[in-house]
Amino acid sequence: MFDTETYLKHLGYTGTLEPTADNLRELHKRHMMTVPFDNSRNAAKGLAIWDDVDAGADHFFQALIAEGRGGICHEHCGLFRTLLAELGYDVKVIASGVRGANDQFGPDLEHMLATVRLAGADWLVDVGFAGPSFTEPVRVSEDVQEQNGFAYRVVEDGAHLVLQRRPGGRDWQAVYRFTLRERELSEWKAIASGENDDPYWHWAGEMIRAGTLIYGRAYETGQLLLVGRRYLRAEDGSDHTRVLAKTDEYESVVRHVLRQDA
């Protein structure tokens, strides 16, 4: 059963409960530091990953907090937005299409995240994106916002908004594109049932069906991301990447990212 006090204790959060920007930043970062991204329970499901998109906060709380497991985007999003709503934040679900290796964006419903309306501004809230991305909310604005040596901004691109990220001394690169239109969970259920005929899912679905294991977690000054055997550590404005060829090293990194060696 979802329990706000237990959730906050899991995050190690001891601040005030007022819905402020500073508190939102700390809650967001603490979630990403203590609740890892882990698709290993869902990697073999293909587009059926959306089957339990509407399972509810109690279900996600049991898996990610009570049992201490990691999860995927809609599990993180469903859990965290429930916490924010309980604390009085104005939160809604939105969707994004992620930039692929060919610089093309995936379907608009490829990823689930949320926005918070606070002090007259919209903030991107995304604790369930494997990354690398932001660890604290990003204001929906072209103003440059710095985190851990990386710069972020949101720019217009036709009918979409695009979240961009810039490592130190490098060019801007898109992370994903989105709109601020509130989404219904039934839209993702339509994907799982095959009712959604968006042609982009033909290739995005194949990528999901590949079953690559992905693990991710934030820490105080950056992020860790393991995609297959490719290990990325993002901190101080730099992305450091290497391939883990040895099985024992790979398994050690998985345990570290999942906090199983803590």
UniProtKB/TrEMBL annotation:
Top-rank lineage group of the source organism: Bacteria
InterPro entries, sorted: Arylamine_N-AcTrfase (IPR001447), Papain-like_cys_pep_sf (IPR038765)
Pfam families cross-referenced by the UniProt entry: Acetyltransf_2 (PF00797)
Gene3D superfamilies the UniProt entry points to: Arylamine N-acetyltransferase, Cysteine proteinases
Family: Belongs to the arylamine N-acetyltransferase family.
Identification of the protein by name: Arylamine N-acetyltransferase
Source organism of the structure: Streptomyces hyaluromycini
